[in-house]
Design brief:
Strands 1-4-5-6-7-10-11-12 form an eight-stranded parallel barrel, surrounded by six helices. It is globular and about 65 Å long. By secondary structure, the chain is an alpha/beta fold. The two termini are 29 Å apart. It has eleven helices and twelve strands. Helix 1 packs parallel to helix 3, helix 7 runs parallel beside helix 8 and helix 9 packs across helix 10. The protein has a single domain, classed as Aldolase class I (TIM Barrel).
C-alpha cells in the first residue's frame, strides 16, 4: 500500500513566510530557509513554496530564495507563483525545484500543462486549483489569487488538467483557508473520485483529526497544511503518530517517537502523571545519535 504524504505549504509574501487567512489576511512567521530547515528535521514528506507576490508583480518566483531553500531541503520541493512559461519552469528546476505548480496559467493557458508535461514529464507538473462557493452556493474555480471567478467547475477542470498531462492536483479551499475547521471533505472527495492522478487536499487543517479525514473520507493521496505547522516544532511528528493510530499508512523517519504517549482532545500530547515524571528522574537514557 502506498504511504500517504504530509506536505507543508509555505506561503511566501515579500520574502517572508506568512500565515494565510481566507486569501486576504497575512501574518508574518519568519524566513523561508529557517522554516524549511526545521520542517526537514521534523519529518515532513514534501514542501510547497508559494511565492504569492510573483503573480501580482508578473515575475518568476524568487530564484535566489528557491536556490537557498533547495540547499537545505532533502525532500521534494514544489514551487508555485506566477509561473506562465516553459522558460520559467526551466529556471526554477535549475534552482532546485522538483515540481512546478501552476494555477492561473492552467486556467488561462491550459496548453502550458501539456507543454510542461512533454518537456519535463507529468510527474513534474502540478495544477493548483483554488475553489470557493459562489453566490449560488456552488463550487467554482477562482484564479488570480482567489480574486477572479472563472465559471469553471472544479471537478470538470481537474479532469481536463489530467487529460492535458498534469501529474498531481492540489485542491485548495479558499473558504477554509486559515479557518482551522478542517478540509472541505465533500470538495476533496468529489475531485479524488473524478481523477486517477494524486490529489492533495489543502485549506483548513487545525487538528490532526482533519488530516485523517482528508486521507480517508476525502480520499486524498496527500494532505497539505500551512498555518498548522507554524510555531509547533513537533507538529509533523505528532500528526504522523496520530495518523498511524488511526490506521493511516504514513512514513516515519525521525528519531522523535510518541508511540507511548496519549493525545488530549485538542490533538496535543497529554502531560505525564507526576508519578511517571518522578520515575524518569532515575531512568538511564543513552545519548541520542543524530
Amino acid at each position: 500500500m502506498l504511504k500517504k504524504r504530509i506536505i507543508a505549504n509555505l506561503v511566501v509574501r515579500d520574502g517572508i513566510v506568512v500565515q494565510s487567512i481566507g486569501f486576504e489576511r497575512y501574518l508574518p512567521v519568519g524566513k523561508p530557509e529557517v522554516a524549511v530547515e526545521f520542517l526537514n528535521a521534523w519529518g515532513i514528506d514534501e514542501i510547497i513554496i508559494a511565492d504569492i507576490n510573483a503573480g501580482i508583480e508578473r515575475r518568476i518566483p524568487d530564484l535566489q530564495m528557491i536556490s537557498s531553500i533547495s540547499k537545505k531541503c532533502f525532500v521534494p520541493v514544489t514551487v508555485a507563483g506566477g509561473i506562465k512559461s516553459i522558460e520559467m519552469m526551466r529556471e526554477l528546476i535549475r534552482c532546485g525545484a522538483d515540481k512546478i505548480a501552476i494555477n492561473t496559467a492552467a486556467v488561462e493557458h491550459p496548453s502550458l500543462i501539456s507543454e510542461g508535461a512533454e518537456v519535463f514529464g507529468s510527474q513534474c507538473i502540478v495544477v493548483s486549483i483554488d475553489v470557493r462557493k459562489n453566490s449560488e452556493g456552488k463550487y467554482e474555480v477562482f484564479s488570480r489569487g482567489g480574486r477572479r471567478p472563472t465559471g469553471l467547475n472544479p471537478v470538470e477542470f481537474a479532469q481536463t488538467c489530467e487529460q492535458l498531462g498534469a501529474g498531481e492536483i492540489i485542491i485548495n479551499s479558499i473558504d477554509r483557508d486559515g479557518s482551522r475547521k478542517g478540509y472541505d471533505l465533500s470538495l476533496v472527495a468529489s475531485v479524488s473520485d473524478a481523477v486517477s492522478i494524486p490529489v492533495i487536499a489543502l485549506g483548513g487543517a487545525g487538528h490532526p483529526r482533519h488530516f485523517v479525514d482528508a486521507l480517508t473520507t476525502g480520499k486524498a493521496t496527500a494532505a497539505a497544511a500551512g498555518n498548522f505547522f507554524h510555531f509547533c516544532e513537533q507538529s509533523v511528528v505528532l500528526t504522523k503518530e496520530f495518523l498511524t493510530r488511526n490506521q493511516v499508512n504514513v512514513r516515519h523517519d525521525t528519531y522523535a517517537q510518541y508511540a507511548d504517549f496519549l493525545f488530549d482532545g485538542g490533538g496535543r500530547i497529554q502531560r505525564r502523571s507526576d508519578d511517571e515524571l518522578q520515575g524518569l528522574r532515575f531512568k538511564f537514557l543513552p545519548k541520542e545519535s543524530i
